[in-house]
Amino acid sequence: MAMKKGFTLVELLAVILIIAILSIASGVGIFSIINDSRNNLLEEQKKGALDAAVTYMVRTRRYMSSCGSETEANSTTTSCTGTGAITCACKLTISDLVNNNYFDNKNDICDGDVIVYKINGEIKAKFLSDDVCAY
């Protein structure tokens, strides 16, 4: 009787099983990398929005007045943290920063309000809520 050349069913199943395990392992790693990249972009966008708000206020000098037509934060002691006297607090929207070319809102992941305040001569900014930037 002549011998037939080829793979047995067990050998084929073993190869398919190994390929499946490798695919699952690499897929989990890829999703982790994508998630980390999204989180990094989110943090960069948050920092960029706060920096843009401070720059906007400094360049327009709105922090030196009572904020004029900007919506003034009524409860600055609760909205802004820190020690010392808060001389002025103004509320800006992310849209204000984008429309005035101070901030590039990548993928529209940021939307909401930023409060900019001057405390002890230093200008600072913070978000009015924690979920201003999210996917």
On the 0 to 100 scale, the average pLDDT is: 76
User: How many extended strands?
Assistant: 4
Helix-strand sequence: HEHEHEE
Strand arrangement within the widest β-sheet reads 1-2-3-4
Number of helices: 3
Measured by DSSP, the beta-strand proportion falls in 15-25%
Plain-language structure description:
With 135 residues, the chain is an alpha+beta fold. The chain has one domain (10-127). Helix content is 46%, strand content 17%. It contains three helices and four strands. It has a four-stranded antiparallel sheet. A hairpin with a 2-residue loop joins strand 3 (113-119) and strand 4. The longest helix is centred in the first third of the chain and has 52 residues, at 9-60. The protein is rod-shaped.
